[in-house]
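User: I've been trying to design a sequence by hand for this structure and keep getting stuck. Would you show me what you'd pick, starting by listing the structure so we're on the same page?

Assistant: Good idea, let's start from the same input. This is the structure you sent:
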């Protein structure tokens, strides 16, 4: 979107060398009429000139419209003054800090395991790699085995999805903003464990994002996926789902409701860290 006066010049007539005397018969009224005609011409010429000049002026540019303010960038929590112990002696402090945020029984079982910071760090790395952190989450494994609605193949039974309700509820029992503040407070311990695991120049924030993206990239089936019974395990019948990473397959086994709850929490956590 894009964001024409023709001047008429008349030559002045040359003065005649001889001006005849006025006609004696010229009436006074006729003279006055000619004077009036001349004045009208002068006025008309002035108006024409004013109109011409006003047409020639450039149209002033419209004032730029005010733009809407940019969305506020999430602010990362400021690390609070906290006297952290050494990594090897950190389990008691971590238990106290997390227990102050939630007393969910499933979370209490996880906090009872040793080497909490190292387990968390290794678990996030494994999820980012597409692996299931079996050792870290062993205490949260359901007591009952997976069931399908069929003998040799079929979708997962809703009863099996419900086995993970307590895990999803345990995660959601901690506010994402509180979890982000806790992470920032104890990040020096996580960084130390991260260095021990061969990442001296790494940034654990990026590792968190990598793990979240791995889970986010898990497709959402439009219908309940079919599982096929194999000797000692189940696998997906759909080749696309069968090709997923182990942790993505496990995420689908949580069931759609638990999966949405978990992903909503992770989204809130990442945003609370100022990484979203």
């Amino acid at each position: 979107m894009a964001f024409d006066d023709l001047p008429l010049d008349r030559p002045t007539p040359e003065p005649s060398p001889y001006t005849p005397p006025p006609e004696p018969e010229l009436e006074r009224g006729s003279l006055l009429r000619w004077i009036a005609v001349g004045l009208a011409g002068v006025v008309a010429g002035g108006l024409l000139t004013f109109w011409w000049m006003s047409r020639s002026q450039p149209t002033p540019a419209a004032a730029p419209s005010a733009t809407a303010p940019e969305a506020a960038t999430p602010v990362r929590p400021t690390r609070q003054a906290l006297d952290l112990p050494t990594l090897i002696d950190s389990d008691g402090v971590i238990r106290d800090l997390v227990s102050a945020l939630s007393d969910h029984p499933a979370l209490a079982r996880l906090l009872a395991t040793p080497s909490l910071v190292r387990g968390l760090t290794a678990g996030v790395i494994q999820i980012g790699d597409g692996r299931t952190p079996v050792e870290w989450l062993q205490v949260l494994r359901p007591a009952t085995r997976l069931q399908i609605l069929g003998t040799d193949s079929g979708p997962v039974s809703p009863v099996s999805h419900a086995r993970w309700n307590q895990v999803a509820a345990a995660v959601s029992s901690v506010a994402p903003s509180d979890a982000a503040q806790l992470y920032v407070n104890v990040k020096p311990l996580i960084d130390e464990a991260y260095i021990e695991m061969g990442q001296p120049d790494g940034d654990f924030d990026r590792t968190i994002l990598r793990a979240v993206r791995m889970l986010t990239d898990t497709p959402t089936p439009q219908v309940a996926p079919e599982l096929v019974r194999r000797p000692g395990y189940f696998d997906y019948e759909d080749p696309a789902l069968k090709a997923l990473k182990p942790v993505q397959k496990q995420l689908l086994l949580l069931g759609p409701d638990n999966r949405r709850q978990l992903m909503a929490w992770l989204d809130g956590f990442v945003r609370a860290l100022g990484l979203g």
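That's my pick for every position. To get oriented when you compare it with your attempt: Residues 1-62, 64-69 have pLDDT under 50 and may be disordered. Strands lie at 153-155, 226-230, 233-236.
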